[in-house]
Specification:
Strand order of the largest sheet of chain B: 2-1-3-4-6-5-10-7
Helix content of chain B: 25-40%
Largest sheet of chain B: 8 strands, mixed
Largest interface: A-B, 71 and 58 residues
Number of helices of chain B: 13
CATH topology of the largest domain in chain A: Pyruvate-ferredoxin Oxidoreductase, domain 3
Strand order of the largest sheet of chain A: 11-10-12-13-15-14-21
Radius of gyration of chain B: 22 Å
Number of strands of chain B: 11
CATH architecture of the largest domain in chain A: 3-Layer(aba) Sandwich
Structural class of chain A: alpha/beta
Mean pLDDT of chain B: 92
Mean pLDDT of chain A: 96
Strand content of chain A: 15-25%
Shape of chain B: globular
Low-confidence stretches of chain B: 1-27
Number of helices of chain A: 20
Distance between the termini of chain B: 72 Å
Oligomer: heterodimer
CATH superfamily of the largest domain in chain A: Pyruvate-ferredoxin oxidoreductase, PFOR, domain III
Order of helices and strands of chain B: HHHEEHEHHEHEHEHHEEEHEHHE
Number of domains of chain A: 3
């Protein structure tokens, strides 16, 4: 049966079901198909912290949203055009995000009296008319899957578990996705379980064929490939990009990579990823706790390795003392904080930007560090290289503030030429005895004598003859590095450590402002993962005729040297953050600029439409 | 061995020869073999002496502190390792003992409270060419750093941990420590401490340590022999050193050091030798009914029932039973090597995984890694 094909420029779909329904896998496969097809895309996995919350309940709902388009897009989208609801809980939990007129594909098999009652429905919303504003497709996904697998030697339970592949097959047909990648994936994933492989492939094909033959779907959609810059692309999440960036930095710096880490959501995937890459000489150490993870990384740095530790907020709190030691020792150290909703355990799988002040100031004493924040999932790759460049050149801890949204969200990434990456080996050198000729022919080593340009102290690693020295957390005499309680020396050392970090501003390039018509009176300034939402909101405002300037900070300590000047050139500066105004507080204190702070802390990225409204309000009130 | 000892100082000459009371005769190496922890560490191209390991820093412990004796014995011992100074690294935490790295002319880090084993783990795991020594105390290792200590022991990284146990907090001026006896009157416990102390040797054995020994600051010969045995163990060597704090806990170990009582209280362990102690070595050990050890007069005891020390026993139960002899009254306190069980070290296994991966798949290719399995072309 030939169906009508309708062209769309972009679509947002959301798969939603029980935690055990395989929604993340279905979403991930749809993403890969979409990437292979050539659309631009952005994803938002959203799942509970519990591995298997009670089946059929609202807390157990897991979803995966994907935005794809024939042009470049910046966010996973505000509101789904299509919601796949595998059970009543999934419908109830997600319906408020779905605009009227959108498609809802509901798995009718799960809309039983018991399941409905469990989430508070007294009547089935599929039948009581309450969904009349939506385009509802009632599909018996479970029973059709089971029927399609009758000939295959799997249990009923195993057959039911393949229903996510039926749903994926149906969606793949609906949006004309190339199925080959998913079929290849299933063949390889279940290579050792031929019956399960057959079940999943058959379920996928049954879903596809159902779409093609049923009258429930009269239209098939097509979203043409996006025009992206020429190159080789792959899809990548933030955690993967960060991991690859570290491996690349290890290669380009010639320093063996050592990761000390303790498992914590949503940072564990960095440990998982790096533990695979032993061929690159990567050492991963699953420590007994967060403190040991950072301690081992610092020990490795002392020995001349690239010491890295990865964690999330609660782990950052535990690492604070060791980061302070690294400040005092002035050794390179990379600390990755994949932020999540806090305080305390908070909401481990939900995103937030509320660790900024902790990263900047959360240690005892005057303890300046470098703080960087990636803006996009693929941007995590460059941030890792930049962090290593700064840490090794200036011998300082560098904190990378990623977050749950960047960590798990994905987007197409134009793969860089490995040979074209920064030559980090040229940015630093280990100290050698010949640099320290003393009176009696022996090296006169001074562990805290600074390079006059960078203010970095020498990095003399154990095994270097003649440069034996002792360092520690006790205040050191300027130059010699011996223990010193001298008041004047302490004042000087406190200022030198700060000056070293401040001086890096001259080495990071100015903050670039996107102000296409030069007429804007309002600047919207963000940092970290809000880049996509702010960018999409700015586009909306501009399409509607508004003038708005946008800038985004990747360096949060030190700030780019021109930041004060940029802030002063606009009548109003709007700072949206997924916290209660942490960057705003720093900007006000530092530049005496009364920025307008806009804050939502819902564990989710901003919606573009919401931010566009906020921006327009500020423009209207200038 | 003996020429090495001459170079290191007089005390070593005695220990290297091994006297009747010398413990751990398995610690004295044949001249041709390097200590097991140092097989990947370069050999010094010149002979070094005690003085080469003294830094220019003024030693600032209290007069009479046991740390002086330990430092002197350690510095005199170091030349016999025959490694370059630059390949020796001392890592310490916080406390009186943790100042030691400042006084040894090698690479050193005086880190933060309790974390030295973690820092040393990262260093040793990435630098097999270094000899890494952790200097810690009873508060540092057993209280604030207890977690790092037990995990370092089970993990068996190639490091040496020297725990100076003075049973008191010295640097914070005299609070009770996790090894202080129950009822200890201190500034923080004017009515007596309430908690049961740790027995560090029992703790280490329970934490799957592969090398566990105890020695005393005042017995330089014994201390040196234990250091030698520790260096000859690949993996984590745990050495508890009873150390006197003359200011806040003076004479804490008097029953073990006083000439009047020490022959009765100290049980010097020597691998392969019958356990003998007391006047005229007339006392021995035998297993009681429930698996614990008890002291008996050798005369009149069934010779087959008397314990012969076996530090290499695979099962740690015997070593644990030995460790339980040490009680608050010091009636019987074994010193020497309780346990030395060869076991692959964590850093060696880590290096093996890397070389195995490279042998299997070749050196990592960055372009291949970045591309992954699923790519597509645009333009």
């Amino acid at each position: 049966m030939t169906k009508q094909v309708q062209q769309l420029d972009r679509v947002i779909i959301r798969f939603a079901g029980d935690s055990g329904d395989g929604m993340q896998l279905a979403g991930d496969r749809f993403t890969q198909e979409t990437a292979a097809f050539g659309n631009d895309l952005s994803t938002l996995p959203n799942f509970p912290a519990e591995i298997r919350a009670p089946a059929g309940t609202l807390p157990g709902v897991s979803s995966f949203q994907l935005h794809f388009a024939d042009h470049d897009i910046l966010t996973p989208g505000d509101a789904p055009d299509v919601l796949v609801a595998m059970n009543p809980a999934a419908l109830k939990a997600n319906l408020s995000d779905v605009p009227r007129g959108a498609d809802i594909i509901a798995n009718t098999d799960e809309f039983t009296k018991r399941n409905l009652a469990r989430v508070g429905y007294t009547a089935s919303p599929l039948e009581d008319g309450s969904l009349s504003g939506y385009n509802v497709h009632a599909v018996a996904i479970t029973s059709m899957t089971v029927k399609a697998l009758e000939e295959i030697d799997v249990s009923r339970k195993e057959a039911e578990r393949a229903k996510n592949m039926f749903a994926l097959g149906l969606l793949s047909w609906l949006y004309n996705r190339p199925p080959e990648g998913t079929l290849k994936f299933l063949r390889s994933k279940f290579a050792n379980k031929p019956e399960i492989m057959k079940a999943n492939i058959t379920a996928f094909q049954a879903g596809w064929n159902y779409g093609e033959t049923t009258e429930a779907f009269s239209v098939q959609y097509e979203v043409k490939p996006a025009t992206l810059a020429p190159g080789t692309y792959r899809n990548i999440t933030g955690n993967s990009a960060l991991s690859y960036g570290l491996v690349a930095a290890s290669r380009r710096s010639g320093l063996p990579l050592f990761l000390g880490a303790y498992p914590i959501t949503p940072a564990s995937d960095i440990l998982h990823e790096l533990s695979k890459h032993k061929r690159f000489g990567v050492r991963t150490f699953q420590a007994e706790d967060e403190i040991s993870g950072v301690g081992a990384a610092l020990g490795a740095s002392f020995g001349g390795a690239l010491g890295v530790t990865s964690t999330s907020g609660p782990g950052m709190a535990l690492k604070a003392e060791t980061i302070g030691l690294a400040v005092s020792l002035e050794l390179p150290l990379i600390v990755i904080d994949v932020q999540r909703a806090g305080p305390s355990t908070g909401m481990p799988t939900k995103t937030e930007q509320a660790d900024l002040l902790m990263a900047l100031y959360g240690r005892n004493g005057e303890s300046p560090v470098v703080v960087l924040a990636p803006a996009t999932p693929s941007g995590c790759f460059e941030i890792a290289l930049e962090a290593v460049r700064i840490a090794t050149k200036y011998r300082t801890p560098v904190i990378i503030l990623s977050d749950g949204y960047l960590a798990n969200g994905s987007e197409p990434w134009r793969i860089p030429e490995a040979g074209g990456l920064p030559k980090l080996r040229d940015e630093f050198s280990f100290s050698s005895p010949s640099e320290w000729s003393g009176a009696d022919g022996k090296p006169d080593f001074r562990p805290y004598q600074r390079n006059p340009d960078t203010l970095a102290r020498p990095w003399a690693i154990p095994g270097t003859p003649g440069l034996e020295h002792r360092i520690g957390g006790i205040e050191k005499a300027d130059g010699t590095g011996t223990i010193s309680y001298d008041p004047g020396n302490h004042d000087r050392m406190v200022r030198l450590r700060q000056a070293k970090v401040d001086g890096i501003a001259a080495d990071i390039g100015p903050l670039e402002v996107d102000d296409p018509d030069g007429q804007a009176k309002v600047l919207v300034l963000g940092w970290g993962s809000t880049f996509g939402s702010i960018g999409a909101a700015v586009r909306r405002v501009r399409v509607a005729g508004g003038s708005i300037a946008q800038a985004h900070l990747r360096h949060l300590s030190p700030f780019p040297a021109n930041l004060g000047e940029v802030l002063a050139s606009y009548d109003r500066v709007l700072v949206p953050e997924i916290n209660l105004g942490q960057l705003a507080l720093v900007l006000r204190g530092r530049y005496l600029t009364d920025v307008i702070s806009y804050n939502r802390v819902r564990g989710l990225p901003f919606r573009a439409a919401e931010l566009a409204g906020v921006i327009q309000d500020v423009i209207d009130n200038v | 061995m003996s020429d090495r000892a001459e170079n290191g100082g007089a005390a070593n000459g005695e220990a290297a020869n091994g006297g009747a009371n010398s413990p751990a005769n398995d610690g004295a190496l044949e001249a041709s073999r390097r200590p097991a922890s140092l097989t990947l560490v370069p050999v010094a191209d010149e002979k070094l002496g005690t003085r080469d390991f003294k830094s220019d820093q003024e030693v600032r412990w209290c007069p009479g502190c046991g740390d002086y004796a330990i430092l002197a014995a350690f510095q005199a011992f170091l030349p016999e390792l025959e490694i370059p100074r630059e390949n020796l690294v001392m890592i310490s935490g916080i406390g009186c003992s943790s100042r030691l790295p400042y006084y040894v002319d090698s690479y050193g880090m005086h880190s933060i409270h309790g974390r030295a084993p973690a820092i040393a783990t990262g260093l040793a795991a990435s630098r097999p060419d270094l000899s890494v020594w952790v200097i810690t105390g009873d508060g540092d290792a057993l209280s604030i750093g207890g977690n790092h200590l037990i995990h370092a022991l089970r993990r068996n990284v190639n490091i040496n941990i020297l725990l100076f146990n003075n049973r008191i907090y010295g640097l914070t001026k005299g609070q009770y420590s996790p090894t202080s006896e129950q009822g200890k009157i201190t500034k923080s416990t004017p009515f007596g401490s309430l908690d049961t102390p740790f027995n560090p040797v029992s703790l280490a054995l329970g934490a799957e340590a592969s090398f566990v020994a105890r020695t005393i600051d005042s017995d330089r010969k014994h201390l040196t022999s234990v250091l030698r045995a520790a260096a000859d163990h690949r993996g984590t060597s745990f050495v508890e050193i009873y150390q006197n704090c003359p200011i806040f806990n003076d004479d804490a170990f008097a029953p073990l050091t006083s000439p009047a009582s020490r022959d009765d209280t100290l049980i010097r362990l020597e691998h392969g030798e019958p356990v003998r102690f007391g006047a005229d070595l007339g006392r021995g050990l035998r297993f009681g009914r429930t698996g614990s050890l008890e002291a008996v007069d050798v005369a009149g005891a069934d010779p087959d029932s008397l314990v012969v020390h076996d530090a290499h026993a695979a099962d740690p139960s015997y070593a644990f039973a030995l460790s339980r002899l040490d009680r608050a009254d010091f009636a019987h306190t074994p010193i020497g090597v309780f346990r030395q069980q060869p076991r692959a070290s964590y850093d060696d296994l880590m290096a093996e995984q890397i070389s195995a991966a490279r042998a299997r798949q070749g050196e990592g290719d960055l372009a291949e890694l970045l591309a992954g399995a699923d790519t597509w072309q645009v333009g």
